[in-house]
Amino acid sequence: MPTPRPLVLLTLCLAASVVAGCKVDTVEPIVPIASAQADARLYGVWRYRDKGELIYVHIGPEWALGPAKEGQPMRIVMVDHKRNGLTDEVHVAYGARVGKARYLSVMQEYDGKREGYLVVRYSLPEPDVVRFATMRGERLAAAIRAGRIKGTVRGEATSEEGTITAEPAAIAAFLAAGGDELFNPPVVLRRVPDR
What we know:
By secondary structure, this protein is mainly beta. It is built from two helices and ten strands.
């Protein structure tokens, strides 16, 4: 399987590429898809700008007939502005709340087949600021090796990656117990004002 193009600095919301192939943090979403919680506070256009990087992230309902509701996926479109042109990526994500924390299960596909999900924790400390943090592969691998969650580990010492194979209820409990140690420092995006 070819390696997907890395997304915003490896830690922006939908991160990561791995030499061995498609990166997934978990085979199942954090909560069953029918229980996923779309978060209308994320809807809109967000901007990430840092040292020559300019990326716009559009977030909204995958489909909508009314307000955000349970089981509704979110669509995330990332547009990366580079000197030599634009690139774009489209993702589907399912929202979840575990305790007070909010997460996205971002679906990863290859050739139209679901491979699994990236786990992204997010917070909105202000209405126009969102912070996204992705899982740290080495910490997830260590938790799997220690038996804290069912999963598999691949790679070598400096590039180990773990994939959770547990059911959604076990994933949510693991995240509730894991706290900050499992995640990279957050990347901050700012909302683009409406016209």
